[in-house]
Amino acid sequence: MLSYVISWGAALVLHLIARQAGLAHFGSLMRMAESTFDLGSVADRLILPVPVVFVLTRIVDFGPTLAGLVTASVVGGVAGFKRLGGQLLRWRVGVRWYLLAVFGPGLAMLIAIGLYALVDSSFLASANFIWPTIGRELLFWLFVRTMLGGGLGEELGWRGFALPRLAARHGPNRASLVIGIVWTFWHLPGHLIGASPVANLLAQLLVTIPGSYVATWLYLRTGGSVLILTLFHGALNGFNSFYERSLFPALRDADAWLLIFIALLIGISIWASTTMRGEWARFSERTQGYGSSTF
C-alpha cells in the first residue's frame, strides 16, 4: 500500500505539473527525465524547478524501494533497515549468477525475436548495427533501467522486504503470485495514459507474474541477493528498451515478438515453480533465518 501511495502520489503531482506545462500527461516528464535527459527544454513552462521535477520522477520509480526501507525501519528499527539494505550488498554469489541475471533476459528476448523473424522479417530492415554506437546504447539502457528506476527502484521492496515475509507464511510459489499481482497493478498509472490501457495492463500481467516466479527462484539460488535481482530487473527492462528503441526500432510496432517472449517466460516460470517446492525451509536454514517473520 505504501508503494502505491508513494509512486501514485508522485505521479499525480507530476501529472498536474505536466498539464500546467501544456504536456499531455506525466509520462512526458518521465521520458524526459530518464531517457533523453531534456527536462531543461521545458524549464520555463514548469511550475517547479527542474531538479525538483526530476526528483519527483525518481520517486515514482522508487516507490517500492522507499516503501520497503520505511516499513523495515518501522518494523525492525535501525537493525531492520540495515538488514534490508544488506541484501543489496550480498555480492558473493558466483560469477554465473551475474551472467545469468544480466544476459539471461537479453538472450531470451533475442530468441523470441529470432523466432518472430522466421514469420515476419520485415523489421530487420530497421536494424542498427553501427559500432560502437550500438554498444553505448546497450550500456545506456542497462544503466538507466537498473540505476534510475526498475531494478534499484523496486527490488528492495518487492523481493528484499515483501518476499521473505510472504514466503515464510505461504511458501515461495504463493508469495511469487501475490507479489506478481501487486507488482502488475503498481504500473497502473503508466498504462492509464497509454492508447490501450486494458491490453497494456494484460501484457504487463503476463510478464510480471511469471517474472516474479523467476525472480524468486534467483533469490533462493543466490542466498537472498537483492543485488542480483536488481541486475535481473534492470536487464529485463533494459534489453527490452535496447531491442525496441536502438537495435530494431520497427519492433515497437510489432507485438508478436513480445508474445513469443511471454510464452518463453511462462515456460521458464513453470519450471522455476516446480523446483521451488519445499525450498524455503532449506533456504531459511542456509541464510540463518532470512525466512523468519522477524526479518
Give the DSSP E fraction (strand runs of 2 or more residues): under 5%
Helix percentage range: over 70%
Class from secondary-structure proportions: mainly alpha
- Integer count of domains: 2
Instruction: Give the total of beta strands.
Output: 0
Q: How many helical elements? A: 12
Task: Spell out the helices and strands N to C.
Answer: HHHHHHHHHHHH
On the 0 to 100 scale, the average pLDDT is: 93
Structural Rg: 19 Å
> Outline, from the CA principal axes?
globular
Oligomeric state of the chains present here: single chain
Summarize the structure.
The chain has 295 residues and is an all-alpha fold. It folds into two domains: 61 residues, no CATH class; 207 residues, no CATH class. It is built from twelve helices and no strands.
Helices, strands, pairings?
Layout: H1 2-20, H2 26-36, H3 50-61, H4 63-88, H5 95-119, H6 133-147, H7 151-186, H8 188-192, H9 197-221, H10 226-247, H11 256-275, H12 279-286
Helix pairs in contact: 1-2, 1-3, 1-4, 2-3, 4-7, 5-10, 5-11, 6-10, 7-9, 7-10, 9-11
Task: Sum up the structure in keywords.
295 residues; mainly alpha; 2 domains; globular; disordered C terminus
Q: Would you give an account of this structure?
A:
By secondary structure, the chain is mainly α. It has two domains: 61 residues, no CATH class; 207 residues, no CATH class. 76% of the residues lie in helices and 0% in strands. Helix 1 crosses helix 4, helix 4 packs across helix 7 and helix 6 crosses helix 10.
